[in-house]
Amino acid sequence: MSNHEHSGNGNGVLLRAEHLTKLYPDGQVNALIDVSLEIHRGEYLAVMGPSGSGKSTLLNMLGALDRPTSGETYFEGRPMSQIPNWNRLRAQKIGFVFQSFYLLPVLTAVENVQVPMFETSLPAASRTRRAIELLEEVGLGHRIHHSPEKLSVGERQRVAIARALANEPVILLADEPTGNLDSKSAVGVFELFAALHRSQGMTIVLITHDEELGRRAERIVRMQDGQIRSDMPSPGVSPTRGHPASGAPAAPASASPVGPPAGLRVMPGVSSRGPKSILPPFAVPERG
Amino acid sequence: MRFYTFVFKNVWRRRTRSTLTLTGVAAAVGMFVTLVGISDSLEGTLLDLYRQRRIDLIISRADAVSPMSGTLKERLGADVAALPDVQAVCPGLVDFLSFENLGINGVVVQGWPAGAFMFAELQVLQGHGLTAESRGKKGIMLGKDLARNAKLKLGDRVDMSEEQYRVVGIYEGSDIENSMAILLLEDAQKLTGKAGLITGLTLRLKDQSEAAVEEVRAAIEGPVAEQAGEKGKVRAKAPQEFVNTQAQLRMFKVFAWAISVVALIIGVLFMLNTMVMSVFERTREIGILRAIGWQPSRVMRMILMESMLISVGGAIVGTAGGIGLTLLLSQMPFAKGAIQNSVSPGIMVKGFAIALVVGLLGAAYPAFHGTRLLPTEAIRHE
Question: ipTM greater than 0.90, yes or no?
Answer without folding.
Answer: no
